[in-house]
Specification:
Elements (H helix, E strand, L loop, with lengths): L12 H24 L2 H12 L5 H8 L3 H8 L6 H10 L5 H6 L7 H7 L14
Helix pairs in contact: 3-4
Length: about 130
């Protein structure tokens, strides 16, 4: 993405330059998010499968949310804090840092073993057999 080429219409050029810089930074952040898009979705789909739920709808029922809402999460929409906290409440040993960032350090030992201790998204990841 490219930052729009805004003309400084304001008399305060410093304020105008600051706004252009903020716009550029926001666009760069959006690009970074796009590159990582899907990592959380892949982790959560992997979690569902490792817990033995072959069908997303059944897992959504277990969580007490609609199948469409869970489908959105697995298809790349952001995982809301409400859903992440629900997952953590329903699934012992799960950690928010693993859900959002793939950091396995906060997982319980049992959950780390179930997930193979290394979250998907890492090039070297191989699920346990």
């Amino acid at each position: 993405m490219q930052a729009p080429k805004n003309q400084c219409l304001s008399k305060n050029k410093l304020k105008c330059k600051a706004n252009q810089l903020i716009t550029r930074v926001m666009l760069e952040i959006a690009d970074m998010i796009d590159r990582k898009k899907g990592a959380t979705s892949r982790r959560l789909k992997f979690l569902r499968e490792r817990l033995g739920y072959r069908k997303p709808g059944r897992f959504a029922d277990y969580l007490g949310i609609s199948a469409a809402r869970w489908s959105n999460v697995e298809n790349g929409f952001p995982c809301s804090l409400k859903i992440a906290q629900l997952l953590r409440k329903k699934i012992a040993g799960l950690d928010l840092d693993w859900i959002y960032y793939g950091d396995p350090t906060g997982l319980s030992e049992r959950m780390a073993k179930l997930l193979g201790e290394q979250p998907p998204g890492d090039e070297n990841f191989k699920p346990p057999k």
